[in-house]
Amino acid sequence: MNITTANAGGRSQTGMDQGGYMLPSRLGLRGTESLSDGWSLGFWLEAPVLPNTGEPQGLEWSRRSTISLLSQQLGEIRLGRDYTAAFWNVSAFSPFGTVGVGGSSNIILGWPQGLGEASTLSRASNMISYFLPKNLGGVYGQFNYAYDNGSKGAGYAGGRLGYENGPLNVAGAYGRTSMGGYGYETATLGASYDFKALKLYTNYLWHKLGADKQEVALVGVMVPVGKGQLKLSAASSWQSGRKDGDDAQQYAIGYVHPLSKRTTLYSAYGYIRNQGQASFVTSDISPEGQAGRKSSGLQFGISHSF
After folding, report:
1. Virtual CA dihedral for 297, 110, 146, 188, nearest 10 degrees?
2. Which of 27, 155, 221, 244 lies 20 to 30 Å from 56, alpha-carbon distance?
């Protein structure tokens, strides 16, 4: 939970918001059962919630609903609704993740669905996924295929491959959603490196539907300060096609301070400068953005997991 003051198009609004510290609010159930010969079965049900009202956010269990067959040697087969490959680079290689006034998704067009009628930029339903085992010397990856079940923009095929060893983590991902005569495509590349004195992040995303394309690039750092962490990021968005010139830049700074292993205080400030007809905003509670105007947000909050 946090208190956010947001500005857009010359108007301001203050209220409670449920995102801000890396992940939005959610409530879930998960478990595993050991089988034999290194195999296990797992399930995961996770629903978005709005703690300021106590209401569910959208459909129940819409964040994740999966069942998995896992092997220590062979990897994991996962069935159900889950993140697509492209989501992980946008989230993992940003100091603020994808939420809050500094979130890397704030200037991604159509987030979290995608362009046009696509619904697969961050998640997909009816999906079969395979995850590589964790014994490949730092190499990791996943491959996804989702059935459309007759819904336009819901079918998906994609994958992600990465390498993590010591302070270095780098990964690339690609996905395609069938949209009739043409496809909605996404590609991402991200990396982080921990220098101890600071951790450096960078990621790049492009997604396109026909002649319409957007590119987003981000760089960020996270610096240990006492028990807490100082976060900074800068990102730019470029569009071509029907929205050519509708560009934007986002700058963010924040600080998180742990009170315990489960409880964290956080604060952040984000600023977006829109160009052309772009109208990106920094927060869920922002007033509707206006073309060519700035948007900013300041939030103070607390996060607790249990």
Report:
1. -70
2. 155
Structure-block tokens of residue 259: 């009170």
Residue 193's closest CA among 215, 229, 220?
A: 220
How far apart, in whole angstroms, are the C-alpha atoms of residue 125 and residue 112?
14
Residue range 234-279, pLDDT digits in tens: 999 999 999 999 999 999 999 999 999 999 999 999 999 999 999 9
Neighbouring CB atoms inside 10 A of 149's CB total 9
**Most distant pair of Cα atoms in the chain: their distance:** 63
Burial of 127: CB neighbours in 10 Å, binned 0-12, 13-18, 19+: buried
Closest CA to 76 of 147, 157, 171, 143: 143
Is the pLDDT at 21 greater than 80? The verdict is no
Q: What is the DSSP string of the chain?
A: -EEEEEEETTEEEEEEES--BSB--EEEEEEEEE-STTEEEEEEEEEEEETTTTEE-SSTT-SEEEEEEEETTTEEEEEEEEE-HHHHHHHHTSTTTT-STT-TTTTSTTTTT-STT---SSEEEEEEEEE--S-STTEEEEEEEE--TT-TT--EEEEEEEEEETTEEEEEEEEEEE-SSSEEEEEEEEEEEE-SS-EEEEEEEEEEETTEEEEEEEEEEEEEETTEEEEEEEEEEEEESTTTT--EEEEEEEEEEESSSSEEEEEEEEEEEE-TT----SSTTPPPP-TT-EEEEEEEEEEE--
